[in-house]
Amino acid sequence: MIQDGGLPQTGCYTDRCERARKSHSPRYVASLALVFPAAKRYYLVDASPDLTRQMDLIDEDGFRENANLRGPFDGIFLTHAHMGHYLGLALLGREGLGIDRTPCYCSSAMKKMLSENAPWSLLVQEGRINFPQIPMDSWINVDGLFDVKMIPVPHRQEFSDTVGYIFRGSQKSILYIPDIDSWEKWDKSVAEVVAGVDVALIDGSFYSSKEIPGRKIEDIPHPLIPHSMDLLEEVSKNNSKVMFTHLNNTNPALDINSPQQLEIRKRGFELAYEGLRITI
User: Fold this and answer.
1) CATH number among 3.40.190.170, 3.40.1650.10, 3.40.50.620, 3.60.15.10, domain 15-271
2) What pTM, to 2 d.p., does this model score?
3) What is the Cα–Cα distance from 262 to 276, expressed in whole angstroms?
């Protein structure tokens, strides 16, 4: 799954972006869906600019029936206010699907940003999204189907703070942290957090600090994949599966069988991909 700008990215004409333009296997901006077919309930985690095509991946009659009734999602979880994580909400508004009243789980800062800034504020004013209270760092149950914990993570706060989530179903638990400035700035041990879940989907934006010509990585900080692997290698050898998501268009790990991609697999890690299914 890809970083906010997508692949190909606007104004990118590198070989990697050109291959993506010609590819019949589209890459989408990082997002998740929690699917409970028996209950006909469906939840979105981050509303990306690729939301229309990502919704098409949910090949469930119940989901499409709900969408036809203006209620595709029974809840939306948002991590923060960088473009790849909430722009898709606009597609659910009056000019698009026109969703009925839908719970939107997020931090209080994210709620404030959406409520006070157009066009998102119209979703709030028209009652299309509402904001159930969700405490930070505490478990809550959602609709009797799964438990969720919202956890704060350090990341650039231009418009809101940033959170990650742990989702816990009857079989497995998933950690979702697509963005963080660095593991060292976090007030938690990433190894301990990852050891406590079955699957961790974590920030894999960059492989090297040298891969962004004309820009300073200090301006867009993210942990580098090799460093994350160093911190989590022992954990990944045990019961926790670690998968990198949110890869930037400059990341060579996107290239099939590149040395970087092969190194990730050799060390026991994985890359998230479009259509990935994880049973929780």
Assistant:
1) 3.60.15.10
2) 0.96
3) 19
